[in-house]
Amino acid sequence: MIPYGKQEINQADIDAVLDVLKSAFLTQGPKVPVFEQKVAYHVGAKHALAVNSATSALHIACSALGLGPGDWLWTTPITFVASSNCGLYCGAKVDFVDIDPRTYNLCPKALEAKLQSAELENALPKVLVAVHLAGQPCDMEAIFKLSKRYNFHVIEDASHAIGGLYQNEFIGSGRYSDITVFSFHPVKIITTAEGGMALTNDDELASRMNLLRSHGITRDENLMTHEADGPWYYQQVELGYNYRMTELQAALGVSQMDRLDSFVARRHELAERYGELLKELPVTTPWQHPDSYSGLHLYVIRLRLDVINKTHRDVFEALRAQGIGVNLHYIPVHTQPYYQKMGFQPEAFPEAMQYYREAISLPMFHGLTDHEQDQVVLALREALGGTDQ
Ligand SMILES: *Cc1c(COP(=O)(O)O)cnc(C)c1O
């Protein structure tokens, strides 16, 4: 089976992890800050906080921004459930904004319309999670302007997007958001097995997220309610969690960061090649906004079902039967049973639903060979069968 995504581990990665195993610290040692500084420096952010997953990063990001009961978090329905679950963890209510049919990201026009009506109902969001689907950044400038006009915070869920650029700056620079989150799950662009990171330029937010990732405990006297009782002393000043990253993960992350640019460059080569190979087929290849250089975590095609004599499911199953590990990113979150109980109407977000009826993620990862890519395209050509054109 050719998977849709896969990590790349080399000898340097293995050596880096083994070195930690032989060292004094398996967790809470020197590697985590090294990894944080490396990522922060690379993307141009002031602070970076490594945690055990992007899900944890989203949770402490929402919490640090003060999201709580009675507040709203908005995001796109075309994302992994973690992008909206983080609002629920904080006791907030969640709602969605439909996608742009060209980028598949949250649509700023739909956002503006929804904000106008929410303002009348006194139900403006406190936090918007902008998800850079497949690695292509959202229209952050438009979202940022709306955030100033309607007074909400912006978190970039850049789980797909490390190494990408928006308006010639690395995603994570935080120019148009409060906090950016990366994921280092093995299918993502670089990996730490499990792992995530929250980046911000705001000292206060960084300090709060730092507390929240480790039980709300501090050893910094400036954050304590009174002077330390002695050198053993620490204080719990908030209710936090154990979301810490281990030294093993951080060492792997440091080593993987050395290859970030080449990982993303290879993804672009593969995307260009797909573009050529799929030109004659009845599929829509991913449109790339001129303002962006995508991290290209995913390569999503949409079937032109109007000219194909097969169903979406037929094509998907035929590809899987041929050993092509295609996938579908994502089932619209608001249609999940847990969200259905909140009363969302599936067709409330028609562009998202249309996308779901047509989308297929083709294999896209650094180690995919040209030969394997040719196999994918051949299998797709066969799966699509004859067309009406
Ligand atoms: C993978 C992913 C997450 C969650 O990442 P974890 O590190 O597995 O917690 C969140 N949001 C999006 C968009 C993702 O793709």
TrEMBL record:
Pfam families: DegT_DnrJ_EryC1. Keywords: Pyridoxal phosphate. InterPro entries: DegT/StrS_aminotransferase, PseC, PyrdxlP-dep_Trfase, PyrdxlP-dep_Trfase_major, PyrdxlP-dep_Trfase_small. The keyword Glycoprotein does not apply. Coiled coil: none annotated. The keyword Cell division does not apply. PANTHER family: DTDP-4-AMINO-4,6-DIDEOXYGALACTOSE TRANSAMINASE (PTHR30244:SF34), TRANSAMINASE (PTHR30244). Belongs to the DegT/DnrJ/EryC1 family. This is UDP-4-amino-4,6-dideoxy-N-acetyl-beta-L-altrosamine transaminase. It comes from Marinobacter salarius. The lineage of its organism: Bacteria, Pseudomonadati, Pseudomonadota, Gammaproteobacteria, Pseudomonadales.
